[in-house]
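so i finally got all the pieces together for this one. its two components total, 655 residues if u count the protein bits. some of the lines might not be protein, just check the labels. i wanna see the whole assembly predicted at once instead of chain by chain like last time, that was a mess tbh
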Amino acid sequence: MNKWENNKAWFMVIPVFLVVAVSAILPLMTVVNYSVQDIFGPENRIFVATEWYKEVLTDQRLHDALSRQLLFSALVLLIEIPLGIIIALMMPKKGWGASLSLVLVALPLLIPWNVIGTIWIIFTRPDIGLFGAAINSMGIPFDHTAAPLDAWITVLLMEVWHWTPLVVLLAYAGLQAIPEAYFQAARIDGASTWATFRYIQLPKMRGVLTIAVLLRFMDSFLIYAEPFVLTGGGPGNSTTFLSIYLVKLAVGQFDLGPAAAFSIIYFLIVLLFCWLFYQALLKVGTGDKS
Amino acid sequence: MAMVIENITKSVANECHIDDISLQLEPGTFNVLLGRTLAGKTTLMRLMAGLDKPTKGRILMNGKDLTGISVRKRDVAMVYQQFINYPSMTVYKNIASPLRMAKVLDAEIDRRVREAAEMLHIDSLLERLPVELSGGQQQRTAIARALVKDSELLLLDEPLVNLDYKLREDLRTEMRDIFKRRKSIVVYATTEPMEALTLGGNTAVLHEGRLEQFGPTVDVYQHPQSTRIAQAFSDPAMNIVAGKVDRNSLRLGDAKEVPLRHHLSGLPPGDYRFGMRANHLQLEMQTSDDIEFQTTIDLAEISGSETFVHLFHSDDPWTVQQQGIHNYRMGDQAKVYVDSANLYVFDLDGRLVISPTRPDSPTMT
C-alpha cells in the first residue's frame, strides 16, 4: 500500500524530468557527444576520447581568454556591487522622487544588449562620440579600436552602465525591507551613519547581495553580445573573452570538437565559481563555522 | 529629579496625534501608557525619546529643557514591538553595543553585559547570533541591551505583543521585578488593561491623543474618572446601563427597583449611568439582594478556563465573564445578576460620581 503511494509520486515529477531533459540535458549531451568525437558528417565520425580536451586545455589563447575573463568579472564585481549599494543608499525612500529615480535607474536594463554595444560604439568614437570626442579634445588620446587599455575601459564602462542598475534595484529592495525601528534603535544607541550601514543595512541586505553577486558574476563571465558588437574581441585579442573565443572557435573556424570540449569546461567553471560564491556568502555574517 | 512633559502637542499634516498632554514622571517609577492602537502611545514615546519634535510644549529632564535636542545627545534606551538587534553581532556584542558607543572600559562592559544577560536568563546564549534565537530570546536580548545602558529614560513600546502567550506572561513578571529595582524612569506602552495591572506602578490612560487619567495603576483601575477610562481600563470593556435613583431606591434598565445600599446610599435622586465589570455580572443569583436583568444570549466565547458570554440587555451589548467552560445557545433568554455593591456610578456626561468602596481586586488571568 505504502509502496504504491510512494511510486505514484514519480508520475507527478515525470513532466519536470521531460521538460528538463528536452531543454537542458539533451542539448548538453549533444555537446558531450561532439566533444569526444571528430565529426565530418552523419556517417563519418571518429571517436577521439579526450583528445579535444587535451588540445583545449593546452591552448595558450584559451588560457589568455580565461585570465582576461577572470580579471574582467573581478573588476565588474568590485565596481558594480559597491557602486550599486551607494546609489541605492542615496535614492529617496518614498514619494515621487523614489518612483522617478527607480525609473531612471532602470532605463539601461530595458535596452536590448546588441543596441547597447552600438550605443557605446557611437558614444566613444574619437571623432563624433560625445565621450570619445570630449576626452580627446582634453588632450587625452582615447580610441577603443586601437588601444587595448581604452578598449577595456570602454567595455567596463559599458558593462557598469548597463548592469549596475540591477544591483541598485536589488539593494534598494533590500534596504526598503528594513523596518524603521532598526534606524530608530541605531539613533538611540548613538550609532554613526557608517555604523548604521555596517551593522544594520549591510547585514540586512545580505540575501539580495548574494543574488546580485551571483547574477553579476555569471552574466559578466558569460558576456558576449556587447563586446562582440563594440570591439569584436579586439584590438588584437585584448577583449576576447571566453565566449567570444568560443564562438570564434566554433563558428569562425568550425572546430566543433574543441569548441564542444571547451563549452563543457566553461560550463563547469561557471558552476564551480557559483558554488564557491554561494558557500562563501552563506557564511559571511552568520558566523557559521561548520 | 523628574521628567516633566508640559502641554505637549504633536500634529502631522493638520492631524492631531497628541493633544495637549502634561505629565510628570519620577525616577525609579514604572509607568504604563494604556490605550488602544492609535491612542498616541507610540507618538508620545517618540516625543519622550526625542525621535520627533513636539509641535507645541516642552519636555524637561531634571529641570533641563530637552525639547528639540537630538536623540543622540539624550540618555534614552528603547525596546520595540519588533525584535530589534544588530543582525551580524552576537548576543554579547549586541548587549555591549550601547556601552561601546559610550566608550565604557572593556572590563566594565564585560561585567555589565554578563549581569544583564544573567538577569534575563540569556547568559548561555551570549555567543549566538540573533537569527539563531527564538523570538522570546531575541526580545530578551533587546531588553538586556536597553537595560545595560542604565539610561535615565527607558521606553518599552509594546515589547511583548509579538510573543506567544506563555512567554509573554513569564517575561512580563520578570520585567516587573527587574525594572522596579532601578532608578530609571520606565515607560511601558500597552493596549492590554490586564498587562497594566500585572505590571503595577502608575498608569496613564490615553484616548485619541489625549491624556485621560494618570495615577497609581490600582487607583486608576478602582476609580476611573469617566466611562471612557472605565471602558478602556477593563477587559472586556465595562458594561454600561442607564438607571434612575429615587429618594431611597434604584432602578437599572429593565430591572426591578431595589433599595439604595452600600456606597450608593446618599446618592442624590436623578438619572445616572451605571458601570458593571464583566467579572461582577453573574448568570446565577448569589444573594437575594442581587439586581436581576433579562437578557438574550448572543455568543459564548471560551478562553482558557473562562467563558465570556456576550449578550444583549435591550439593545446594549454586554459581556459576562464566567469561570469555567459553559455552552449557551444563541437567542436563548438568560437572567443576569449584579450586586449593587459593585456598581460604578457616572453622571450623564460620563464623569465618575462614585466607585465601589469594597477593594476591587481585578481577576488576573
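The mean pLDDT of chain B is 86.
The first strand of chain B starts at residue 3 and ends at 12.
anyway lmk what u think
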